[in-house]
């Protein structure tokens, strides 16, 4: 009788394990698909906008371009590419939990890419939702490039620092006199934050 109970428990645990793995894979599949669609749609929108501007042969006022970028706040505001870790991912406005499941989020209190100041993004390093920033800690080094595409143009940042801080060290988001990029992700199983800093190449 005892052996039968143990067998039943073993079977239930196996089923539970399969369910957890299946659920995790589904969440990742869903996140990856949504991100791919965001990237594709944004690239098409950028291409259309730039083609139209080229045909019109008119210079677009920077304020107008800023309005266009802000108008995309409910969707994709840009694309981040990090060749060193073979990463291409959409950037959404805000760092809400739901958004970070399928994209990298822009901290609203920081400047937009390409502008003078501190532009900061947050991304997961989680197997459950996605692994967008998983390669940062081991593979990113000083001198590596980070590419950002927005409606305002394409920008290249060069990594100059990487370090780990406690979650409450929010000064990493403080304004800067230079045009810098700050990437924030979890490390040590969520206990601390990995910070990557990069400067805009001019």
Q: How large a portion of the residues is in β-strands, by DSSP E?
A: 25-35%
* Helix coverage percent: 25-40%
Pattern of helices and strands: HHEEEEHEEEE
Q: What is the count of distinct domains? A: 1
Tally of strands: 8
Largest sheet: 8 strands, mixed, barrel
Broad structural category: alpha+beta
Describe this structure in words.
The protein is of the alpha+beta class and 202 residues long. It is built from three helices and eight strands; from the N terminus they run ααββββαββββ. The longest helix is centred in the N-terminal third of the chain and has 55 residues.
Overview features:
alpha+beta; Sortase, Chain: A; 202 residues; globular; 8 strands; 34% helix
Topology of helices and strands:
Elements: H1 2-56, H2 62-71, E1 76-82, E2 87-93, E3 104-106, E4 117-122, H3 136-139, E5 145-150, E6 153-165, E7 179-187, E8 192-200
Parallel strand pairs: 2-3, 4-7
Antiparallel strand pairs: 1-2, 1-5, 3-4, 5-6, 6-8, 7-8
Question: TL;DR of this structure?
Answer:
This protein is 34% helix and 30% strand.
